[in-house]
Amino acid sequence: MPIKIPNNLPAVNILEKENIFTMDEDRAYSQDIRPLRILLLNLMPTKIVTETQLLRLLGNSPLQVEFDFMYTTTYEPKNTPHEHLVKFYETFAAVKSRKYDGMIITGAPVEQIPFEEVDYWQELCEIMDWSRTNVYSTLHICWGAQAALYHHYGIPKHDLAQKMFGVFPHTVNIKEKMLFRGFDDVFYAPHSRHTEVKREDIEKIPELCILSESEQAGIYAITDKKHRALFITGHSEYDPLTLKAEYDRDVLQGLPINIPANYYPNDDPSKMPVVRWRSAANLLFSNWLNYYVYQGTPFDLEKLTEPDDISSLYGAGI
């Protein structure tokens, strides 16, 4: 949360240079407080696992958050009990009249299928278009990020020679951006994908900015310059044993799979994995929820509009 300080206190300039978020008295007094409304479009097959991972990270915040869960109707989930969907999930038709402070679009195990051949592609495109006017800030994860970059900007995905699989070191390109406030110079994040987006394709789009990348894993974090959409190519939400479960599954099925990089001690799958990304994951999601949702979303969501640039609210640091 921001530090509230007296108006025009000299320390504010020093704190801002150190990437400490401050709020003057005038702005603090003008803030209205209410629960944030977040919508999760869960495209993962094991929906209960994914929702638990994300709620664990988003719950690590003093902000009060209300969640709605959504799934696509053009594809019948096979790995989640129907009773769970009926009890906790809604369809797009049920939520499309609402407005939300934030939304998360997860990854999906369909990255090797052309976008247009994914069963629910047209429904997903409709949802992504709707999010631009009905959601203040949308966080796209892994294939969800690739899908949104392709749909909104025409950025293609490219096949990798082998699966990007493991926990990789990353650096922050623009350190004053609020998404990475509090991060170390080098931080780790898991990846598990067969495709990638390339720097040269992203740099052709003036509306986009690359925030973080990895020498081994490539581009990691992208934002649009209106700061209303974030695209994360990795899986910071993964639990300690998620990569192990994927590795064991593929080995059992006789599929070609490398030992996940930087995961097992001495690359020995008989040993327990080393968790290197937990603190960075908590920071990533709490920073998104605080700076990109809470600090900018209107108190009355019916007044939700798409400003030219929300950085004017906080200075260039957002």
Automatic annotation (TrEMBL):
Marked site: Important for acyl-CoA specificity: 111
GO biological process: L-methionine biosynthetic process from homoserine via O-succinyl-L-homoserine and cystathionine
One annotated GO molecular function: homoserine O-acetyltransferase activity
Site (Important for substrate specificity): 192
Location (main, coarse): cytoplasm
Lineage: Bacteria, Bacillati, Bacillota, Negativicutes, Selenomonadales
Annotated active site: 142 (acyl-thioester intermediate), 235 (proton acceptor), 237
Protein name: Homoserine O-acetyltransferase
Keywords for the protein's UniProt record, in alphabetical order: Acyltransferase, Amino-acid biosynthesis, Cytoplasm, Methionine biosynthesis, Transferase
Gene name of this polypeptide: metAA
InterPro entries linked: Class_I_gatase-like, HST_MetA, MetA_family
Highest rank taxon of the organism: Bacteria
Pathway listed: Amino-acid biosynthesis; L-methionine biosynthesis via de novo pathway; O-acetyl-L-homoserine from L-homoserine: step 1/1
Catalytic activity: L-homoserine + acetyl-CoA = O-acetyl-L-homoserine + CoA
Compartments, record wording: Cytoplasm
Pfam families reported in the protein's UniProt record: HTS (PF04204)
